[in-house]
Amino acid sequence: MRKLVYYVAVSLDGYIAGPQGEFDFYPMCEDMTAWINERYPETVPTPLRESVGMPLDTPNKTLDTLVMGRGTYEPGLAIGCTSPYNHLRQYVFSSTLAPVDNPQVEVVDADPVELVRQLKKEAGLDIWLCGGGNLAGQLLGEVDQLIIKSYPVIAGDGVRAFTGNFEPTRFKVTQRQEFSTGAQVTWFDRA
Question: Tell me: the pLDDT tens digits for 127-155?
Answer without folding.
Answer: 999 989 999 999 999 999 999 999 999 99
